[in-house]
Amino acid sequence: MPVDQRVSIRPKDAADLDVLFEFQREPEGAAMAAFPSRDRDAYFAHQAKISSDPANYLRTIVVDGEVAGDIGSWPQEDKRLVGYWVGRAYWGRGVATAALRLLLDEVTERPLFGFVAVHNVGSIRVLEKCGFHRLEPKERESRVGDDGVEEVVLALDD
Questions:
Q1: Which CATH code of 3.40.630.30, 1.10.10.10, 3.40.50.1220, 3.10.450.350 fits the domain covering 3-156?
Q2: Would you call 48 helix, strand, or coil by DSSP?
């Protein structure tokens, strides 16, 4: 059975958080996302905070009954963003692409935006396969943050 038929998303549950915490601690994932891992207390506090906001879509990615990552969408400033984190064991199998397609069925607001570290070619490709396009520099603000990470901005229009 193709992986996209074995991937599902469901509302994130507190029981998922231990596995998801470990995924965000994987050094390869943190380097790819250019996002530092949180310690346990900070991770759980962040999850409690974002879970309390009804404007956030927070989903767990499930593959063959196992938690494989998480995906979501949230408002930030004047944009609605998407983001995901997939455990390293699930990389390169189409899991993120299948999960993003499922999320796009739920989140109908457009445009949607994804901000991706320029070196994260796998994540850029996931967004592109789901219809996102890169914004030209003249269409966007500079995306080199305080942490020095240069990002590509992609958008999904109507």
A1: 3.40.630.30
A2: helix
**pLDDT tier at 147 (50, 70, 90 boundaries)?**
low
Q: Is pLDDT at 2 greater than 70 in this prediction? A: no
Cβ pair 132, 111 in contact under 8 A: no
Rounded distance between C-alpha atoms, residue 41 and residue 25, angstroms:
13
* Entry pTM: 0.91
Long-range CB contacts for residues 126-130, cutoff 8 Å, separation at least 24: 126/84, 126/96, 126/97, 126/100, 127/82, 127/100, 127/154, 127/156, 128/154, 129/97, 130/97, 130/100, 130/101, 130/104, 130/156
State phi, psi for 119 to the nearest 5 degrees.
-85, -5
pLDDT per position as a tens digit, 92-116: 999 999 999 999 999 999 999 999 9
Strand ranges in the chain using DSSP code E only, listed in sequence order: 7-11, 57-63, 66-76, 79-86, 112-117, 133-134, 151-156
